[in-house]
Amino acid sequence: MTSSFLEHFRHQQQDAEKETVMDTQCPFCSVQCTMQLLEQRTGDRKKYKVLPLKDTVSEGRLCIKGRNAHQHTLHKERILHPMKKVNGQFVEITWEEALFFIKEQFSTLQEHDGPDSVGVYGGGSLTNEEAYLLGKFARVGLKTKHIDYNGRYCMSAAASAMNEAFGLDRGLTNEMEEVPLAECIILAGTNIAECQPTLLPYFRKAKDNGAFIIAIDPRETLTTKLADLHLKVKPGMDAALVNGMLKVILDRNLHDEQFIKERTEGFDEVLKQISGVDLDAIADLTGLPREMIEYTAVTFASVSRAMVFTARGVEQQTHGFDTVRNFINLVLATGNIGKPGAGYGAVTGQGNGQGGREHGQKADQLPGYRSIENPEHRNYIANLWGIPEKELPGKGISAYEMMEKIADGEIKALFIMGSNPLISTPNATLAAQALKRLKCLVVVDMFVSETGRLADLLLPSSSYLEDEGTLTNLEGRVTLRRAARSCPGEVRHDWQILCDVARVLGKEAYFSYTKAEDIFNELRVASKGGKADYFGITYSRLKDERIYWPCPTEGHKGEGRLFSETFARPNGKAKMLPVINHVPKERTSESYPLHLTTGRVMSHYLSGSQTRRSPALSARQIESFVKIHPKTANAFGIKDGTMVYVDSSRGRMKARGAYDDSIREDTLFIPFHWGGEQNVNNVTYQGLDPVCKMPGFKVCAVRVSPVIDLTRN
Ligand SMILES: Nc1nc2c(c(=O)[nH]1)N[C@H]1C(S)=C(S)[C@@H](COP(=O)(O)OP(=O)(O)OC[C@H]3O[C@@H](n4cnc5c(=O)[nH]c(N)nc54)[C@H](O)[C@@H]3O)O[C@H]1N2
Ligand SMILES: Nc1nc2c(c(=O)[nH]1)N[C@H]1C(S)=C(S)[C@@H](COP(=O)(O)OP(=O)(O)OC[C@H]3O[C@@H](n4cnc5c(=O)[nH]c(N)nc54)[C@H](O)[C@@H]3O)O[C@H]1N2
Ligand code: SF4
Ligand SMILES: [Mo]
Fold this sequence. Notes:
alpha/beta; Dimethylsulfoxide Reductase, domain 2; six-stranded mixed beta sheet; 25 helices; 28 strands; 18% strand; binds ligand MGD; binds molybdenum atom
């Protein structure tokens, strides 16, 4: 061996000694892929390597976001100290100063204007422990009824539909492992290939086994490319499309009479509604040929095991609740639930989109999916928390309605933890006006987000690498994410911050936890006997067991497949609901002749606050774009790759036009990961679903025009 080789070998060994291995879990979507992050240090230089781990539903796969998640966490823009705005500039202050500031501001406002003058706004990235504690913080710490969270914009339509139809809301009724058993799969308004990429192999496996996959989406995506049939539906017309399918199924006696009779109620009303449905009218409403609707219906109803998955494409509508109910009608009418390879799934979005909607950060909810309006539930939780039941506030209002109340001046201070509503709220112009009007805005985040810039006080929170806690994946499987490194600077965990604020508000006795596990153990009791029962789940079990909720005892495995015998409603039956041929609340007009729909791209996550700070992810898609059919573009004088304005009656955004001859000619698509003039939510529609208060993010009426008119010279 030459001496230089030995030298090299010695260095390699030294380098290896300077390697830190961190076991962690991706902070982004609901799949919750696990991984190892290797930090290799050579002198001052650090290199990172990411290796997937196998102990999760993604079976050792990671997508591009997971592979680069550490980049934002290690970004130089992480906020490391509390910061207060003084004369328009943020200045570092100590934690005690920050806490004193909150006490002074919130107490003064609440003394003067009552407890409800302060609002709380949470997010689906928070761990179960933190989501639970945020709810308790609002109700016990601040005694306000005003708490809601970004999941209102995400899971509320599917959640309320499942609660009403099945008596229980868990994203998937089956484990992902059962997907390859299905013979027909409908993917409605879900872009799994770009939004939950590591789950795609389950669908590929189903296809290899002979399954027929039907995608419903107004545009072509990596997901629709996997499908055997793509229904390029007019935006917002999915409820009508399902009525067409039900018409075909019922007329041809393809429904499952025995299942309907034994396990459901409400079928007669659905039958009555469907008897009035005219297939040619449905073809017209949906923009799909009648034969295609017939073929889809017959294919779906002719197999013995079928699955339906929906996501935000059909849910983020001003009638999202009804649309999901109709897809559930389809599942129930064909008896496709409660058996292997048959079921329904609302593909959950955020990392803890599932757990985050169960434990009380929602306006009408107490932990364990209990209701804040049910006297028994109120008593149970008030007892556990050690307060008189009458001190527990009542039901609050939804996220967008909170923005309206802030704009009206009724809510005067807001405490935001884990959301960037300036970007993610529909009709963002109103959100901006509202947030600017606040007397006191406190934002708890890792970065100075667009919303954070408007804050009076910023509190630095820990990232996924630092924060321990449980998260519940889209299957309802509870996972334990261990802390992989300690907090940088003065950063604290969200749960610590809540305890600290509660302390200065004089509520220390209710918030004395020393670690996340203490909070989880309280959550277990709080959820005991509730719909989302976590009582049987412990940190030590989570280390080596696969556990789903409901899990009522420590000897229980939890339920991977739901509703095999009975539904969770009082009479054990699922409820069908007749649904009319809804049309979106905002229609196109002469001034606004095109539909706009919004969504995501593979390399960015939500408001982009994290992924825009990840160089590898940001480089893949550096700016927003407007997908437009070339024919439509020609009609409006738009050249490929040039800047365009998109206007609605609410506002304007600007981005680069991108030709796409696979999108419907009457529809534009814009992702929502950017702020400022690229914020598509300046344009989107704020109308809410009457049942679940989901905004109609997925359809509004717009016009498009070139920023510089290149057709004139
Ligand atoms: N890469 C990436 N992955 C993510 C996220 C992310 O931001 N980026 N976010 C996570 C979160 S929180 C969520 S909620 C999920 C969202 O996951 P998805 O809901 O799958 O994502 P979207 O892109 O919002 O919408 C899905 C599809 O609906 C289509 N669509 C639009 N309008 C209609 C309509 O009227 N009818 C039908 N049938 N389809 C329509 C869109 O064209 C789009 O392809 O993804 C999670 N995963
Ligand atoms: N037009 C349009 N708008 C949409 C949608 C759409 O499809 N179209 N989708 C909607 C959906 S489904 C969703 S889920 C929302 C999401 O909308 P947002 O909630 O605004 O999205 P995020 O980017 O996740 O914002 C989270 C913020 O909290 C920070 N953060 C991340 N993790 C943590 C944590 O653990 N603790 C703390 N304290 N902070 C943290 C991040 O840095 C970021 O600034 O957007 C909605 N808005
Ligand atoms: S973004 Fe989702 S699919 Fe991708 S690595 Fe993270 S958890 Fe897995
Ligand atoms: Mo979401």
